[in-house]
Amino acid sequence: MLKEEIIANKGYAVFCVKEDDQPDEIAVRVLKQDCPDFLLPFKTMSIDGNMEFRYELSDGVRMSYQLPRMSRKELIRQMVSLLLPFKNCGDWLLDYHCLLLDPQYIFLNAKDQTVRYVYLPVRSYRMTDKEIKDFFIKFVLRVELQDDKDFLLQILRLLQEEDTSLLSVLEFLQNEMEAGRPPVRPAAPVAEQRARSGVREEKKEPENPSVKPENRKSENRIAEILNPILNKNTSSEQEKPADNLFEKSAEQPVAASGSGNKFGQANVEERLLQNLYGSAGVETKADKKNKKEKKKEKIKDKEKTKGTIEGQETKKGLFDGFFGKKKEKQEETRKLIQSGGDSIQPEPVQNNGGSVQPEPVYTPAEDMVERQKSLAMEDTTEMAGEDYEENNLAILRLYLENEGGYTAPRDIELNLEKGYVTVGRYDKSGYPCADYNFDHSLTFVSRNHFRIELRQDGYKIIDLDSKNGTLLNGKELVKNMAYPLKSGDIISISRKVRLTYRVM
Asked: How many whole angstroms separate alpha carbon 321 and alpha carbon 336?
């Protein structure tokens, strides 16, 4: 339907209007005078009496080049951007059925995820509502959601319902965007749990005389809060009364502090946390003591079993025994070779005819020759495999020609088994943004910089609207346009930095 051309170092998608087709004059006038942000601007050209619409492929990256991996938040944001133009077309006296739903001609802005469509103002082109729904269903099925796969099923059920309109899907996604989901909180540390439970944490600093006495909790108030909780626990193991806990801890010396640590409050806090949050995450003094004892036992067991193999009680004995046996075997083999294998006699074998035929005898020397032959065969097999990998078109290798003053990998191996590979860099948090990622310190490399495809007519390289551009043999690529790539070509990853790779 559309053909692509490079005119004055810019990429264009050209639509030729047929003679029997009637352009929508109102839509053409609107798009010429005040084109909305969600549509690609176009120019009308008359060549040999035929009208052409030329759309400049300048803003964003093709939707077909986007990686399917995304998070739940990114999916909601992108679907809202894709659906909003269908709602806003009415404000511009445009028909949303004329939006071209081809991922090759839907352009996404990498910064704000805004979308631009190609609008075909001709009466012959109209998408049905079912075709529009099918487009979004295919889009959702292609997504690889990383954090909430159930959300994909929820959207698919909504799209597959016959009574569901695009407006209702948009409202659902906008509500999800506004509400969001609370982040999953990690397990709170013991200090935070104590703060939530109202029990002050034990402090080792000396008492601050500036603190007023009325701000400190009294001992009676602590016992009044903690005793009902401790007495409520009815486990199979018989619990000691709270008074015993206080008395037991009172016998231990307690450092003077302003935290109210008298009368065994530390032990009471541990018991309180076990009742409120369970034993997980709360480590008592007894648990620490048991851990130390288990560690000591493990160390003792290792010392006992160390080097005890066939009476060898040390590592030295183990190695001596091993190498001693090895020397004995070597000595036996040497003697057999010197004797020419005369000591080895063939055993008679009875065949079907009744005659006895001796089996072939292999001396140790002959065994060594056979072993060398088999190793040589293995080496040739490995070499043949390596040659096969080198000739495999799914593997493309790049060799560093000029590092441009930066630390970059010398050899790059790109796997094109899925038909394409995207080259970019890690973000600041270490998240991989492309199929092959440079270090995040190479900021002149965009997160999605360029793409290499394996087609029937060979390799193609495409600049993905990168910030600093991509050069092929010194010539800058027009973004979103495919260029042939062959062995010996030089790829420069930026017009500013001379980081270049040669195609092997």
From this structure: 23
